[in-house]
Amino acid sequence: MRIVYVYPQMVDHAGTERILIDKMNYLADIMGYDVVLLTYEQCNRKLAFSLSEKVRHVDLNILYYQYFRRNYFSRFYHWHRLDKILQSKFNDFMSVFCPDVVITSTFYVKPLQIISSCPIPCVRILESHIDRRYIMNNNPVNQVNSFKQILGKIDMCYLTKYAKRFDLLVALNQSDADDWSRYLETTVITNMVHLNPTGKIAKLENKNVIFVGRYTLQKGIPDLFKIWQLVHLRFPDWHLHLYGEGEMRDEIVKMAEQMNSNIHVNEQDENIFDRYLESSVFVLTSLYEPFGLVMPEAMSCGVPVVAFDCPEGPAKIISDGIDGFLIPNRNATLFAEKLCKLIESHELRLQMGAAAIVASQRYSSSKIMPSWLNLFEKYCNSSRN
Questions:
Q1: Taking the complete model, does pTM exceed 0.70, yes or no?
Q2: What is the CATH number of the domain that holds 113?
């Protein structure tokens, strides 16, 4: 089977990039499929995660960022010219490779446009890694900027227009699948998670609480700091370690320094599983999470989780009181109370950590990927008949 994953670039150390590359590696290494990662803005930048030697990477080298170097009067022409070049290069690639399946994500309009406009027959699949209600105009980042809200609504119209031309959308949760079902056929397959590869289990003895995620408004880090202020009053010898990257990093570093309460803001760590093993509790304070990849990652190391019950991911992953604590959304006081309860009891941490390891196995490749393989066979067979 020939499969193409289309994405603008794989530079960010983020969940979607991690998941897509893991799936490509599985399909090429385990299943022996002919898999191509097709980008168009990667240039000479390093891929965020390791790609199997059996997966081909093709970059069409269409540098859209150069658009912003132009004056306002020439931008429209320049953008339109790049669109035509990209579509032509994409069609040429498709006519030579002739894939059975082409897959992209709902994050960006451009891949949907070029895939849906290509005349080469294939099965077209969309992956939704962020709930439709939070894309673009509904993203909290855009709510404080009227101009971004307008642009977001325009982008959403185009996104929906092109999505209708796809054969299927695969969502991470049923709510998102229901939202998209007005426009195309949908199904639900949860993320395959890159589980603990170290063969070790966290001893949960270190006085470290860990947060892993992008430094963005979505992750609710200001709320995490408010929670930590309450925790630090009771346990001043414990430390909060954050790992990630993102546009709010400088602001978060400044906030942490002002609080002076054992908060350590670190860059993204390629050896993040070693950091999980050094920790005793994992925390997640997101405003929304379609899935929440980092939770089962930490759980696979035997680290219990405390998370807000934000829509939609945490409640699907955490069993409250068994492998972690699920806190009513934005209740910072109760969050701090449950976190302190885990800090107080090493025995409770060990008990929940053991349950977390078991729970995390639901998201192993052996449990998730058969659903994808069945889906590919079903739609490819249907297209041939």
A1: yes
A2: 3.40.50.2000
